[in-house]
Write a structure and sequence with these properties.
alpha+beta, 344 residues, 6-stranded mixed β-sheet, single chain, 5-stranded mixed β-sheet, 6 helices, binds molybdenum atom, binds ligand MTE
């Protein structure tokens, strides 16, 4: 079996979650790929020209930073190296920036040498079919060996640069610019002084604040106000969080193992990749929260449940039935065995 990078979990074979933006920007212009910056032969490709170029087949393991992985995805497309050979980057071109046709002009970047070594490519087809729009069709970047945020959907422009230009997630959300899943390069911490951290923990008011990667482990935070807070990667292990309000907060990849979350409210929160193993989740409200890649029990390797690490949940725990579909099969099995609880 292919080993998974640390702290990743497999999605069901036939599943491919849609993460980030859901659709390209609507425009009447036909799809083109513009290539600019430090190249000797800048040019614009019509989509049909790209479709007519020789395609290669690629088999790729996808690893999302929110802890889901999908192994053996098959794409066809064009190797970035083949495009590079046509446009001839100048010697000063050290970075490549990928820019999307999307509402926020989403982008990401890579050192050019890494992009070539990793075999980054432009995908036009997935599993023998044109790439679905929600997954970046008609044209997306796929960067094997990096968290999937380095694989831009709806590619419309490539720029070759002397200096790096951070992408959307890297600049706005503290995603790690190196993004190596084998080294768990997921997030950078927010720039908070020790004093600021101490103060915010004392006030128990995290509402609307950017506190990503904050270390709050072991604290008494009963009744915490954390509506709309940005808490990606935060450490709440072993906290007392009874009655905490996390409505619409972003807790993706937060570590909450063994926290007491009775009566806590996660309505509309982003809980992708969050870890609730060992938590007390009686009367916890998860309705409307996004649960892709969330865990309620730890696994040994990628498949065996470590039952003793299981969260405590019962029929007082509140889920929408539909949101459980976002869980990986092993996590779903664990939750299903306890919720809704059998009444006999
Ligand atoms: N244009 C664009 N590309 C993007 C994103 C995005 O929000 N917009 N999200 C990135 C992230 S974080 C991930 S995990 C993958 C998700 O791709 P998928 O929806 O096809 O699974 O796309 C990446 N590329
Ligand atoms: Mo992602």
């Amino acid at each position: 079996m292919t080993p998974l990078p640390p702290n990743q979990q497999l999605v069901a074979r036939d599943k491919w979650p849609v993460t980030g933006e859901k659709a390209p920007r609507r425009e009447d212009r036909p799809w083109t790929l513009g290539i600019a910056g430090l190249v000797s032969r800048p040019r614009t490709f019509a989509l049909a020209e790209l479709q007519a170029m020789p395609h290669r087949e690629f088999t790729v393991d996808i690893h999302c930073v929110t802890r889901w992985s999908k192994l053996g995805a098959t794409f066809t497309g064009i190797l970035l190296a083949d495009i590079v050979a046509l446009v001839e980057p100048q010697a000063e071109a050290k970075f490549v920036s990928f820019i999307a046709r999307s509402e926020r002009d989403h982008s990401t970047s890579l050192p050019l040498a890494h992009a070539l070594e990793l075999g980054a490519f432009l995908a036009l087809q997935y599993a023998g079919e044109p790439l679905a729009s929600e997954h970046g069709g008609p044209l997306r970047v796929v960067t094997p060996g990096r968290y999937f945020y380095k694989s831009l959907k709806w590619l419309e422009r490539l720029e070759f640069l002397a200096e790096d230009r951070l992408g959307y997630w890297e600049a706005e959300a503290g995603y790690h610019n190196a993004a190596d899943p084998w080294q768990e390069q997921r997030y950078l911490a927010a720039n908070l002084s020790r004093n600021e951290v101490r103060q915010v923990l004392e006030t128990r008011d995290f509402s609307d604040r950017d506190l990503r990667s904050i270390d709050a482990s072991g604290r008494d935070l009963q009744g915490l106000a954390a509506g709309n807070a940005r808490l990606r990667d935060a450490d709440f292990r072993k906290c007392d969080l009874r009655n905490a309000n996390f409505a619409r907060a972003n807790l993706s990849n937060a570590r909450l193992q063994q926290a007491d979350l009775r009566l806590a409210n996660f309505a509309g929160a982003d809980l992708e990749g969050a870890n609730f193993a060992g938590c007390d989740l009686r009367s916890t409200d998860f309705r409307g929260a996004s649960l892709f890649g969330a865990s309620f029990v730890d696994l040994d390797g990628s498949t065996n449940l470590l039952a003793e690490t299981g969260a405590r949940l019962d029929n007082s725990t509140r889920f929408d039935d539909a949101q459980l579909q976002a869980l990986t099969p092993t996590q779903l099995e664990f939750v299903r065995a306890r919720w809704p609880q059998q009444t006999d």
